[in-house]
Amino acid sequence: MSESISIELNAVAPIFDLIDIFNRPVNLKDYRGKRVLVAFFRHAGCPFCNIRVHRLQKKHEEFKAMGLEMIFFFESEAKVLLSHEFHQAINPIPLISDPDKVWYNQYGVESSALKSGISHATTFFQTVVQAKMKGLPVHMMEGKESIKTIPAEFLIDEKGIVKKVHYARSLTDRLGLDIIAKFAETGAA
């Protein structure tokens, strides 16, 4: 993956026209007129990501009522995501499988052994325990999944313009739920 590409504030978000793991079309153009959180996660067994998905999923109805839609990307193959009840339950939020990281690259999602290694060394065991206590999947990588993928989140306004870019500094670094809620309600990032 290229580390030099990044999405800039106030740029038009790269438009994707894909099929999610639930066999539904997901075209970012269809979200015009709505605010959107587009989130890129690591692999299906990543405890850091599954905890984040769990938190966002719990806020789904609240955010939707405020006018925010969510679209989630995972680097795992669809069959891996569908093999877990947790990922199946993400529905109705679109969940897109991108094992070749085509859209990870388009959105400038970083690959960093250093950031991943530091996160694993400092917070992995606590995160695994937290995930297990919530009944979330934790397992080794499969296929093309990479231990070096670093999550990223983007807030996109009604016109398809990127209003907030968050390239994680570690595997636990994500946009605050308060920031997402404010954007959902007011459009201000």
From TrEMBL:
Q: What is this protein called?
A: thioredoxin-dependent peroxiredoxin
Query: Which InterPro entries does UniProt cross-reference here?
Result: AhpC/TSA (IPR000866), Peroxiredoxin_BCP/PrxQ (IPR050924), Thioredoxin-like_sf (IPR036249), Thioredoxin_domain (IPR013766)
The chemistry this enzyme catalyses reads:
a hydroperoxide + [thioredoxin]-dithiol = an alcohol + [thioredoxin]-disulfide + H2O
The entry sums up its family as follows: Belongs to the peroxiredoxin family. BCP/PrxQ subfamily.
Q: Which organism is it from?
A: Reichenbachiella agarivorans
The UniProt keywords, alphabetically, are: Antioxidant, Disulfide bond, Oxidoreductase, Peroxidase, Redox-active center
A Pfam cross-reference name? AhpC-TSA
Chain's role: Thiol-specific peroxidase that catalyzes the reduction of hydrogen peroxide and organic hydroperoxides to water and alcohols, respectively. Plays a role in cell protection against oxidative stress by detoxifying peroxides and as sensor of hydrogen peroxide-mediated signaling events.
The Thioredoxin domain covers 7-185
UniProt-listed Gene3D superfamilies? Glutaredoxin
Enzyme Commission no? 1.11.1.24
